[in-house]
TrEMBL record:
It comes from the Bacteria. The chain crosses the membrane at residues 23-43. This is DUF6126 family protein. Keywords: Membrane, Transmembrane, Transmembrane helix. It holds the Pfam family DUF6126. InterPro entries: DUF6126. It comes from Streptomyces desertarenae.
Length: 46
């Protein structure tokens, strides 16, 4: 089987742009959620 390009450009081992942006958004959202939980427990302990 000859290897043919399927139209998907891989680049030089870099993440696809959409995946990198989604990963960044998930990391930011995860930290905001963790901060909210921390704040909830810190204020509830007083």
């Amino acid at each position: 089987m000859p290897s043919e390009d399927t139209g998907v450009e891989r680049g030089e081992g870099r993440f696809p742009r959409g995946l990198a942006l989604r990963l960044f958004a998930y990391v930011v959202a995860g930290h905001v959620f963790a901060f909210f939980l921390y704040l909830l427990f810190a204020l509830g302990a007083e």
